[in-house]
Amino acid sequence: MKKLLYPIVIGLLAVVLTACGSNDEADKKSGGKETKTTEEQQNKKDEKETAKATEEQQKKMEEMQKELDKQKVDEKKTVAIVNDEKISGAEYNTVLSTTQMQMQQFGQDPTSKEGAKQIKKQTIDSLVGQTLLLQAADKKGYTASKAEIEKQLAQIKDQYGNEEKFKEAMKKAGLNSKMLNAQIAENIPYTKYVEKEIKVDEPTDKEIEKSYDQYAKQAKASGQKVQKLEEMKPQIKEQLKQQKKQEMLVKRVEELKKNAKVDIKI
User: Fold this and answer.
1) Domain annotation covers residue 176
2) pLDDT tens, residue by residue, 61-82
3) Residue 86 has what pLDDT?
4) What top-level class of enzyme does the UniProt entry assign (predicted)?
């Protein structure tokens, strides 16, 4: 922004100085030149500082990414076998990247020894859990029709506005059409299974009030405006419902593990 703003400011200043006029024109021109020179110097200084800061930030990000990439495995390697179903290194690396990102968002260092250990466990646990749930969905007969896949694909595309943005997002995610369709085809039966088989009780008023009190306390502490309970109630209710469902999913995975053969290869 500074590259664009400073020339505009200088130009406007020159117009103002000219419009003012004076009996001592020489002095005013001299003052204008000094002001212009000072601003130009400040502009150059700011540009250098911004460029340096950007360069340092970019360097840190590149170094961090190199460390994160070291945690990846060979895409063709089998990282685990769940009931005779193999989980590939490519699948592992995809979930790994998401786990690394989540850890960073929580202000933790995914490149530390403890962080790397935690990420590996979470990634494997997540993959094993997903595989067990998908296998359970398959046993229950949940499937994805061609129409359902096409409908969900269209909904995903709509989120990006146009085809070009969608293709760009696909490229960044390392996906192609075949891979995306396969993921959608897996996601639909999984979603049906969770909706039909994982039942949770509706959050009680007491649970909602308790969650609201925690929110209000945090909001006040950070100087934020506290919304009324009635305004927050639908949002809190849905959050609690999703939290309960997640807890039930964890329990279901543990139950499925008891009768499953899980062989971790890394």
Assistant:
1) yes
2) 888 889 999 999 999 999 999 9
3) 95
4) isomerase
